[in-house]
Amino acid sequence: MLDPRPVRQICHGTEWRESDPDTLLEVNGPVPHRSWSVRTTIAGETIRPGDDIQQRLSRLDYFLLMFPPSQLTLMHLLMNEEIQKINTFTPATHQAMTKGELLKFFGVIILCTKFEFGNRASLWSLWSRTAKLKYIPAPCFGGTSMSRTRFDLVFRCLRFSYPPAFRPIGMAHETFRWMLVDDFVDSFNKMKPEAGCEVQNAADGESGVILRLKLVKTELEAREDDGLTLGTRVAKYLVEQWARTDRIVCGDSFFASVATAKELKSMGLRFIGVVKNASSHYSMTWFSSLELSNRGDHKGLVHLDTDGNPDMMAFVWVDRERRYFISNCSSLVEGDPHVRNRWRQGDDMEAGPRREELTVPTPKVCNIYYDTCAAIDQNNRHRQDNLQIERKIETKNWATRVGTTILGMCIVDAWLVYKGATGTSETQSEFYSWLAEELIDNSYDKDPIWRSTGSVTEASPPQHLFDSRTGAGRSAIQAHLTPTKRKRKVKGVIMQNQFYQSQCVVCASKFKGQKRKGFKSSFLCSICNDESLDSTAAESKVWLRHSKYGRNCFAEHMAACHSSQYSLASTLVHVSNFEVFSLLQ
């Protein structure tokens, strides 16, 4: 019996058949949706979108989740070796650095991106030109406890990997080295800097986190003869860790080809890509001859496996121009239309332009592709336009530039995971500022046992160090006075620099029935605050006058309501007070 699906084109032995009903069915079956997740080292805990609304993990914790611990150890080892070499050949003696100081160095680098400067030394100077301005405060990097001399030394010794013992062939002399770099820049991309390289990477389509990358090193690497195109080889390398997971891989024209779709299917993966140059085995000629005049028009062909079932689909879709796709998943069922807002000038030239909504019908497979394909570009824009490490920290060293670029990727990934897990309204710029502060003030070398991002064998923080109601970390344990986090409102306007205050319960009981009502306070009893069922109502909280004003309200409240913990509270309240005062000074 003849197959009713006619063969429209045979391309290098690959038959493409026309069958509109088959294009409306899921090629190779449906693919279930999977949300992103990050596996931590805390007893195998997994973080998913919205799992950390209470923000149990700090921004530093998220950075350490994204920065490989083995890389931190390697950099610490290599940089100390460089410092030792400097101590050997110079009379000056420089102290070896710790991992905590390396994290502090990362924080200072991020802090540098917050300022405009011509000379990096001006960031530590109180007598620079910018320091004399009346309304712009001086950067004053001396407060980071890392001097400019120490920063320059660490930056000089910055190493991300073991350098080769000998220069690669063709780069043994500076003249030929720069000829190769200039030729690379002129031939491949005019926008690339001299101290840079081409990077091919894979990112999660939902969160935008960079998953794996590959540096383009030599031309000989691109000429490996294994029967596959370069794009197919690179695509297999980038996604091989997720083989047999039935995930969808969306690739641009560098990777998209019929060969890539076949290879990834053999690895247990799906693929969607836009075909441009790698048109071997693809019915480009037949699609180009079709008459498609309206935006949203599309036409597809299917490839059949040995059992006669469709295993690949090639189709053309018209937007501003024709776009040719190859896919081994999804279908051409109508999906969500693509909507654009445009300003159009009507027939009346005297009238102003009017806003029109342009709707383009889009197949389901195109929805999947365009919801995913911009993830890497967005990650790059976050790093280049918002973080700006490459622009602010200038270097002519190729290895340093590539290393700081990858460091920027880790920082951006930390922001993306933090935003997705906490659902915060914090802006990206604010996150980088707070992360720089936490990196500079880190206690990585002091309390490794309590680090939430340590190895599985390290103990996690005791549960009594966290608020049982909110999950937030405590500034003291047992009974103590804790400041409220509410802000005062004046005529509906929140005063950011003023805490909410309410009547002290001890003073109110003493002056009950008198004209004098006692004193107001912004401090709460920690035990009563934890036991409060309503975390927002001020009436349900126990407000107490602080002892720094000469009142014994807290001691009297403890004796009356929490006598079993009174002896311990009298010592711990000073610890809490000291921490609060140090923040307010």
Automatic annotation (TrEMBL):
Q: Which InterPro entries match?
A: PGBD
Give all residue intervals belonging to the PiggyBac transposable element-derived protein domain.
61-189, 195-415
Q: Which PANTHER family match?
A: PIGGYBAC TRANSPOSABLE ELEMENT-DERIVED PROTEIN 4
Under which name does UniProt file this protein?
Transposase IS4
Organism equals Nitzschia inconspicua
